[in-house]
Inverse folding.
Protein backbone atom coordinates (compact mmCIF):
# COMPACT_ATOMS: atom_id res chain seq x y z
CA UNK A 1 0.00 0.00 0.00
CA UNK A 2 1.21 3.51 -0.79
CA UNK A 3 -0.05 7.00 -1.53
CA UNK A 4 -0.49 8.86 -4.79
CA UNK A 5 1.46 12.10 -4.99
CA UNK A 6 0.59 15.15 -7.04
CA UNK A 7 -2.12 17.71 -6.45
CA UNK A 8 -4.05 15.32 -4.21
CA UNK A 9 -1.80 12.99 -2.16
CA UNK A 10 -4.63 11.28 -0.29
CA UNK A 11 -5.31 8.16 -2.34
CA UNK A 12 -4.11 4.99 -0.64
CA UNK A 13 -3.57 2.45 -3.39
CA UNK A 14 -2.69 -1.19 -3.98
CA UNK A 15 -0.93 -0.84 -7.31
CA UNK A 16 0.36 1.84 -9.71
CA UNK A 17 0.16 1.29 -13.46
CA UNK A 18 3.38 1.22 -15.45
CA UNK A 19 1.62 2.96 -18.35
CA UNK A 20 2.71 6.58 -18.66
CA UNK A 21 2.25 7.24 -22.38
CA UNK A 22 -1.27 6.51 -23.63
CA UNK A 23 -0.51 5.23 -27.10
CA UNK A 24 -4.12 4.56 -28.18
CA UNK A 25 -7.60 5.39 -26.95
CA UNK A 26 -8.65 3.06 -24.14
CA UNK A 27 -12.10 2.34 -22.75
CA UNK A 28 -12.15 1.51 -19.03
CA UNK A 29 -15.11 0.22 -17.00
CA UNK A 30 -14.80 -0.50 -13.28
CA UNK A 31 -16.84 -3.50 -12.09
CA UNK A 32 -15.52 -3.69 -8.53
CA UNK A 33 -13.04 -1.56 -6.60
CA UNK A 34 -11.74 1.92 -7.35
CA UNK A 35 -9.48 3.14 -10.15
CA UNK A 36 -7.99 6.64 -9.92
CA UNK A 37 -6.62 8.13 -13.14
CA UNK A 38 -4.04 10.94 -13.03
CA UNK A 39 -2.90 12.99 -16.04
CA UNK A 40 -0.41 15.37 -14.45
CA UNK A 41 -2.95 18.00 -13.47
CA UNK A 42 -6.01 16.26 -12.06
CA UNK A 43 -7.30 13.01 -10.64
CA UNK A 44 -10.43 11.26 -11.85
CA UNK A 45 -11.97 8.55 -9.70
CA UNK A 46 -13.92 5.64 -11.16
CA UNK A 47 -16.02 3.42 -8.92
CA UNK A 48 -18.23 0.40 -9.58
CA UNK A 49 -20.38 0.95 -12.67
CA UNK A 50 -18.43 3.99 -13.89
CA UNK A 51 -16.37 4.22 -17.07
CA UNK A 52 -14.29 6.57 -19.19
CA UNK A 53 -12.20 6.85 -22.33
CA UNK A 54 -8.49 7.51 -21.81
CA UNK A 55 -7.35 9.75 -24.65
CA UNK A 56 -4.67 8.81 -27.20
CA UNK A 57 -1.34 10.67 -27.23
CA UNK A 58 -1.54 11.83 -23.62
CA UNK A 59 0.41 11.11 -20.47
CA UNK A 60 -1.28 9.39 -17.57
CA UNK A 61 -1.25 6.63 -15.01
CA UNK A 62 -3.83 4.90 -12.89
CA UNK A 63 -3.95 3.71 -9.29
CA UNK A 64 -5.96 0.63 -8.38
CA UNK A 65 -7.60 0.11 -5.00
CA UNK A 66 -9.54 -2.92 -3.81
CA UNK A 67 -12.88 -2.61 -2.05
CA UNK A 68 -13.73 -5.42 0.35
CA UNK A 69 -10.74 -7.26 -1.07
CA UNK A 70 -11.99 -7.12 -4.67
CA UNK A 71 -10.94 -5.33 -7.83
CA UNK A 72 -12.36 -6.05 -11.27
CA UNK A 73 -12.29 -3.88 -14.37
CA UNK A 74 -12.50 -4.04 -18.16
CA UNK A 75 -9.98 -2.18 -20.32
CA UNK A 76 -10.34 -2.30 -24.11
CA UNK A 77 -7.95 -0.78 -26.62
CA UNK A 78 -9.61 1.29 -29.34
CA UNK A 79 -6.56 1.34 -31.56
CA UNK A 80 -6.18 3.57 -34.61
CA UNK A 81 -6.30 0.73 -37.14
CA UNK A 82 -9.58 -0.58 -35.74
CA UNK A 83 -11.10 2.90 -35.53
CA UNK A 84 -10.22 3.65 -39.15
CA UNK A 85 -11.90 0.41 -40.26
CA UNK A 86 -14.99 1.28 -38.22
CA UNK A 87 -15.10 4.82 -39.63
CA UNK A 88 -14.78 3.64 -43.23
CA UNK A 89 -17.55 1.10 -42.67
CA UNK A 90 -20.07 3.36 -40.91
CA UNK A 91 -19.18 6.82 -42.32
CA UNK A 92 -19.84 8.51 -38.98
CA UNK A 93 -20.47 12.25 -38.99
CA UNK A 94 -17.60 13.99 -37.17
CA UNK A 95 -17.63 17.36 -35.43
CA UNK A 96 -14.90 18.95 -33.33
CA UNK A 97 -14.58 17.42 -29.89
CA UNK A 98 -14.47 20.27 -27.39
CA UNK A 99 -13.43 18.50 -24.19
CA UNK A 100 -9.70 18.74 -23.50
CA UNK A 101 -9.46 16.28 -20.59
CA UNK A 102 -7.29 13.18 -20.80
CA UNK A 103 -9.90 10.93 -19.20
CA UNK A 104 -13.37 11.60 -20.58
CA UNK A 105 -16.30 10.27 -18.52
CA UNK A 106 -18.80 7.96 -20.23
CA UNK A 107 -22.42 8.47 -19.23
CA UNK A 108 -23.88 5.55 -17.31
CA UNK A 109 -26.57 3.72 -19.28
CA UNK A 110 -28.32 0.36 -19.33
CA UNK A 111 -27.00 -0.64 -22.76
CA UNK A 112 -23.43 -0.26 -21.57
CA UNK A 113 -24.05 -2.19 -18.36
CA UNK A 114 -25.62 -5.04 -20.35
CA UNK A 115 -22.68 -4.97 -22.76
CA UNK A 116 -20.19 -5.37 -19.92
CA UNK A 117 -22.21 -8.33 -18.64
CA UNK A 118 -22.01 -9.95 -22.08
CA UNK A 119 -18.19 -9.86 -21.96
CA UNK A 120 -17.82 -12.08 -18.91
CA UNK A 121 -17.32 -15.34 -20.78
CA UNK A 122 -15.11 -13.98 -23.56
CA UNK A 123 -12.95 -11.45 -21.69
CA UNK A 124 -9.86 -12.66 -19.86
CA UNK A 125 -6.37 -11.40 -19.06
CA UNK A 126 -7.18 -7.96 -20.42
CA UNK A 127 -8.37 -9.11 -23.86
CA UNK A 128 -11.51 -10.23 -25.67
CA UNK A 129 -11.02 -13.76 -26.99
CA UNK A 130 -10.76 -14.21 -30.74
CA UNK A 131 -12.80 -14.28 -32.95
CA UNK A 132 -15.03 -11.94 -30.87
CA UNK A 133 -12.59 -9.05 -30.50
CA UNK A 134 -13.55 -6.76 -33.38
CA UNK A 135 -17.25 -7.67 -33.19
CA UNK A 136 -17.51 -6.78 -29.50
CA UNK A 137 -15.41 -3.64 -29.85
CA UNK A 138 -17.64 -2.55 -32.72
CA UNK A 139 -20.67 -3.16 -30.51
CA UNK A 140 -19.07 -1.00 -27.81
CA UNK A 141 -18.47 1.86 -30.25
CA UNK A 142 -22.06 1.74 -31.49
CA UNK A 143 -23.29 2.02 -27.90
CA UNK A 144 -20.92 4.87 -27.06
CA UNK A 145 -21.77 6.85 -30.20
CA UNK A 146 -25.50 6.39 -29.73
CA UNK A 147 -25.33 7.67 -26.17
CA UNK A 148 -22.69 10.38 -26.75
CA UNK A 149 -22.39 11.23 -30.48
CA UNK A 150 -19.73 13.85 -29.72
CA UNK A 151 -17.26 11.00 -29.13
CA UNK A 152 -16.92 10.75 -32.93
CA UNK A 153 -14.83 13.93 -32.89
CA UNK A 154 -12.47 12.31 -30.40
CA UNK A 155 -12.23 8.76 -31.71
CA UNK A 156 -12.01 9.58 -35.42
CA UNK A 157 -9.46 12.39 -35.19
CA UNK A 158 -6.35 10.67 -36.51
CA UNK A 159 -4.04 13.69 -36.44
CA UNK A 160 -0.79 13.97 -34.47
CA UNK A 161 -0.14 16.46 -31.65
CA UNK A 162 0.24 20.09 -32.74
CA UNK A 163 3.05 22.34 -31.52
CA UNK A 164 2.28 23.59 -28.01
CA UNK A 165 3.89 25.62 -25.22
CA UNK A 166 6.91 23.52 -24.26
CA UNK A 167 7.63 25.17 -20.90
CA UNK A 168 4.07 24.80 -19.66
CA UNK A 169 3.91 21.17 -20.78
CA UNK A 170 7.20 20.13 -19.18
CA UNK A 171 6.56 21.87 -15.85
CA UNK A 172 3.26 19.99 -15.61
CA UNK A 173 4.44 16.59 -16.89
CA UNK A 174 8.06 16.16 -15.74
CA UNK A 175 7.20 13.30 -13.31
CA UNK A 176 6.08 10.98 -16.11
CA UNK A 177 8.67 8.36 -16.97
CA UNK A 178 8.76 8.59 -20.77
CA UNK A 179 11.58 9.13 -23.24
CA UNK A 180 12.77 12.48 -24.57
CA UNK A 181 11.43 11.36 -27.96
CA UNK A 182 7.94 11.02 -26.43
CA UNK A 183 8.13 14.46 -24.88
CA UNK A 184 9.18 15.88 -28.24
CA UNK A 185 6.32 14.15 -30.06
CA UNK A 186 3.71 15.29 -27.53
CA UNK A 187 4.83 18.91 -27.82
CA UNK A 188 4.59 18.77 -31.62
CA UNK A 189 8.33 18.89 -32.34
CA UNK A 190 11.10 16.85 -33.91
CA UNK A 191 13.70 15.67 -31.40
CA UNK A 192 16.22 18.25 -32.63
CA UNK A 193 13.71 21.12 -32.41
CA UNK A 194 12.64 19.95 -28.95
CA UNK A 195 16.22 19.93 -27.63
CA UNK A 196 16.92 23.34 -29.17
CA UNK A 197 13.75 24.93 -27.78
CA UNK A 198 14.27 23.24 -24.42
CA UNK A 199 17.76 24.68 -23.94
CA UNK A 200 16.54 28.15 -24.91
CA UNK A 201 13.82 27.96 -22.24
CA UNK A 202 15.53 26.10 -19.39
CA UNK A 203 19.23 26.65 -20.19
CA UNK A 204 19.81 22.92 -19.66
CA UNK A 205 19.52 19.63 -21.49
CA UNK A 206 16.17 17.80 -21.12
CA UNK A 207 17.71 14.77 -19.38
CA UNK A 208 19.57 16.77 -16.73
CA UNK A 209 16.62 19.09 -16.12
CA UNK A 210 14.21 16.18 -15.67
CA UNK A 211 16.38 14.43 -13.09
CA UNK A 212 16.99 17.62 -11.10
CA UNK A 213 13.32 18.65 -11.21
CA UNK A 214 12.21 15.23 -9.99
CA UNK A 215 14.80 15.19 -7.20
CA UNK A 216 13.83 18.68 -6.04
CA UNK A 217 10.19 17.62 -5.85
CA UNK A 218 11.18 14.48 -3.98
CA UNK A 219 13.12 16.52 -1.43
CA UNK A 220 10.10 18.78 -0.91
CA UNK A 221 7.68 15.87 -0.50
CA UNK A 222 9.93 14.14 2.05
CA UNK A 223 11.12 17.20 3.94
CA UNK A 224 7.94 19.30 3.92
CA UNK A 225 5.13 16.80 3.42
CA UNK A 226 6.57 13.91 5.43
CA UNK A 227 6.10 11.31 2.67
CA UNK A 228 8.24 8.18 2.58
CA UNK A 229 10.74 7.59 -0.26
CA UNK A 230 9.01 4.30 -1.10
CA UNK A 231 5.72 6.18 -1.55
CA UNK A 232 6.96 8.66 -4.13
CA UNK A 233 9.77 7.32 -6.31
CA UNK A 234 7.50 5.70 -8.92
CA UNK A 235 5.27 8.77 -9.13
CA UNK A 236 8.33 10.91 -9.83
CA UNK A 237 9.56 8.87 -12.77
CA UNK A 238 12.20 6.65 -11.11
CA UNK A 239 12.03 2.99 -12.06
CA UNK A 240 13.61 1.57 -8.89
CA UNK A 241 13.99 2.73 -5.30
CA UNK A 242 17.73 2.03 -5.40
CA UNK A 243 18.23 4.25 -8.47
CA UNK A 244 16.19 7.00 -6.82
CA UNK A 245 18.22 6.76 -3.61
CA UNK A 246 21.54 6.85 -5.48
CA UNK A 247 20.55 9.92 -7.53
CA UNK A 248 19.11 11.66 -4.45
CA UNK A 249 22.28 11.20 -2.38
CA UNK A 250 24.47 12.29 -5.28
CA UNK A 251 22.46 15.52 -5.59
CA UNK A 252 21.86 16.37 -1.92
CA UNK A 253 24.57 14.50 -0.01
CA UNK A 254 22.02 12.56 2.04
CA UNK A 255 19.87 9.53 1.25
CA UNK A 256 16.10 10.02 1.04
CA UNK A 257 15.68 7.49 3.88
CA UNK A 258 18.05 9.48 6.09
CA UNK A 259 16.20 12.70 5.29
CA UNK A 260 12.90 11.03 6.10
CA UNK A 261 14.27 9.75 9.42
CA UNK A 262 15.69 13.16 10.24
CA UNK A 263 12.31 14.73 9.56
CA UNK A 264 10.56 12.17 11.77
CA UNK A 265 12.92 12.80 14.71
CA UNK A 266 12.40 16.56 14.47
CA UNK A 267 8.65 16.07 14.71
Amino acid sequence: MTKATGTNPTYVIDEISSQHFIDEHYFMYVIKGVVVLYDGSQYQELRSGQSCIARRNRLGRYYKTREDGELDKVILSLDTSFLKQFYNKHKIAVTKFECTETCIPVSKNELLDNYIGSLQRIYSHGKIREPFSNVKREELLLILLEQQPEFAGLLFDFGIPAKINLEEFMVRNYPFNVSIERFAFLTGRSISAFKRDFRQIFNETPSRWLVLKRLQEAYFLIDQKGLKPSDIYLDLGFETLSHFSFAFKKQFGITPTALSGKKTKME
Summary: The mean pLDDT is 90. DSSP finds eleven helices and 14 strands in the chain. Residues 2 and 231 are 5 Å apart (CA to CA). The radius of gyration is 21 Å.
